[in-house]
Amino acid sequence: MTIRTAFFLSLVVTTTRISAQDLVHYANTLQGTASDFGLSYGNTYPTTALPFPMNAWSPQTGKDGDGWKYQYTADKIRAFGETHQCSPWVGDYGVFSLMPVLDSARTDAEKRATSFSHQNEIAQPSYYSVKLDNGIRVEMAPTERGCHMRFSFSGPAKTHAAFLMLDGYTKESEIHISPDRHTITGWVNNGRWTLGGFRNYFVMVFNKPFVSYGTWENVNGLLSKDKTDDLGNGVGAWLEFAKGSVVEAKIASSYISPEQAEVTLQHELGSFTSFDATHHAANEIWNKLFHRVLVEGGTEDQKATFYSCLFRASLFSHTFFEYDKDGNPWYYSPYDGHTHQGYMYTDNGFWDTFRSQFPLTNILQPTMQGQYMQALLAAQQQC
Predict the structure, then answer these.
(1) What pLDDT is recorded for position 7?
(2) Please, what sign has the CA dihedral across residues 39, 40, 41, 42?
């Protein structure tokens, strides 16, 4: 064997070993959530999402409408929901959330907030999990425009009545409950910068039947049983499941229409027969991206810092286009309020992103960057 051949074989073995690594475990999505002056106000939340998603997902420790969505120093979680927030000062939009509770349907957000410990929390790009102090475990695995959630009312929680609260967040929302289909559909319209006709349409399909159900009003906390339709300021829904249930929910949303939300649900989550399958698929997508930048040497902590930062650099701008039933891209324009064919991205502050993030995206995501240039031209024309 020649020296050159030996070197080549060594290189192949080394490259294979590196490419087989699971790099996702290095990325800690809690990085930056200890938002105090001594740590330069990280202002992040534990985002669970795919790269450059339309929708991201996060636990929520702050009040509805509070820009500081998740604070590491908080000891209670209020909800688990969809988010698009790129800055605590800009705030969020198109938000709705779910929160599991025991014994009764509690409309008061203060009373349904549940204590937890970071020791019982796993926060990765492709997976978030927390075991609340009352015994309920909540898990989230993302798709580009949706999420697969799992609520385990097990352990000490299994002897209690199991409830799930859907919160319409702030401003106007509409709810439709279909008990025979184990489904909730509706829309929310919240956010500071959205047009008057903006709506985020959503669909949620549960794998377990409802024992009881109804709606509630965020303004006055009034709860109605057996009511399937409601419209109002921050209107929400509540569901009761059998004691000890492990409830899975497939969720998708659309800025275009309720029908498009259904199309997206089937396109992105229809083939996943379990929560674990959705989690595995999300993990594969992040691993594929992380393996575009392989680093060697350094400590494990330094690798964790690197991939945690690469994760954050791969979240914004958000995808704002969707795929119709034939697989063609189209979108609701946040600039003129109409639908258009093609690509759109949003949630970029353009604050020095041209210095670092755009050059990085040019290298790692050339196809997406080409779509982004088309979106910038479309935005200019629609403004």
Answers:
(1) 35
(2) negative
Hey, what are 176's tokens? Answer: 């439709």
Residue 83 DSSP one-character state: E
Alpha helices in the chain (DSSP H): 3-19, 109-112, 258-269, 275-290, 300-312, 357-364, 366-382
Per-residue tokens: 148: 């697969």
Distance CA(185)–CA(177), nearest Å, equals 7
Q: Tell me how far apart the alpha carbons of residues 273 and 158 are, in angstroms, rounded to a whole number.
A: 24
Contact 69, 62 (CB under 8 A): yes
Global pTM reads 0.92
Of the candidates 64, 70, 67, the one whose C-alpha atom is nearest the C-alpha of residue 91 is: 67
Q: Residue 30: in which H helix or E strand, if any?
A: none
The SS3 of residue 370 is helix
The per-residue b/e assignment along 242-278, b for 16 or more CB within 10 angstroms, e otherwise, is: eeebbbbbbbbbbbbebebbbbbbebbbeebeebeeb
Q: What is the pLDDT of residues 47-71, one digit of tens each?
A: 999 999 999 999 999 998 888 899 9
The per-residue pLDDT for range 164-218, each reduced to its tens digit, is 999 998 889 999 999 999 999 999 998 877 777 899 999 999 999 999 999 998 8
What pLDDT score was predicted for residue 5?
Answer: 38
Token pair belonging to 67: 């820009």
Pick left, alpha or beta for residue 273 (phi over 0 → left; psi -120 to 50 → alpha; otherwise beta): alpha
Report the alpha-carbon distance of residue 9 to residue 19 in Å, rounded: 15
Query: How many CB atoms are located within 10 Å of the residue 338 CB?
Result: 10
3-state SS assignment for residue 149: strand
Is 365 exposed, middle or buried (CB count within 10 Å of its CB: 0-12, 13-18, 19+)? middle
CA distance 42 to 33: 6
Residue 11's pLDDT is what? 35
Which residues is 326 bridged to in the sheet? none
Would you state the structure tokens that stand for residue 208, as one six-digit string?
């377990």
